[in-house]
Amino acid sequence: MAIVMLASGCSVAVDGTARPAPGAAPRSLSGSTIRRVLLGKSALSRIVRQPLNIDPGFPPSFAGPESLPGDRSASPDDCIEVAVMLQQSAYRYRKVRSVAQETWRPESTTAAVVRVKEGVVDLPTPDDAGALFVTFTRQWQRCEGKTVPLTGGAFRLKAKVNEVHVEASVLAATTSIELDSPNQLLDDSLPVGRAIGVRDNCLIEVEVDFASMPDRTPRQLDDVDASALDIAQIMRDKIGALR
Questions:
Q1: How many whole angstroms separate alpha carbon 57 and alpha carbon 103?
Q2: pLDDT in tens, 41-88
Q3: Residue 229 · residue 170 · CB < 8 Å
Q4: Domains, the chain, ordered by start
């Protein structure tokens, strides 16, 4: 059954179509304006309920498609895009014009949230953004329950994809990051909330990394799922306000 999601300026259907919404004139953000879509310290700290600061190891970035991380030659159908945001392979052939990114870290070393990443991708038209959102939705749904190897770091890690769902033009999922090891003593996982939103000609990506939760409560599990989703939805609202 097709799921139809209304993104301001276009209606996006998971059956593969993207069309203008009735009575809505498509708009586009471009250039440095997309940096204003990113949430600041107070808004992000309020959403995750703890103080955050910009991570000096990853300064704010506004650049072209060359700033997207990862292997451009990797298969775009790979589930790595669910586990790691803004991958080159996911956006190749998509005429990306610019990308704005920020990374935040907690003030406290004992905080529940250990990192927040937010990004905005500027595509030429609302139709381009809507079509790519449909592609991501289908891809993430296929990745539900799968385990993805994470390469390029000092340790062998893997991520399991769970809880893929769509709410109000935002695609969300949770992943569990753990060491790729047969040693049962090393099976603690780090929960991560992921979200991709669409509005007008922009795609929004969010990642919220949590500290290990050996004895997770239902409230904590809800926080993992909701945090990235909430951030992405507020960023969508900012795009509407900037038009």
A1: 9
A2: 999 999 999 999 999 999 999 999 999 987 666 555 579 999 999 999
A3: yes
A4: 29-242 (3.40.1000.70)
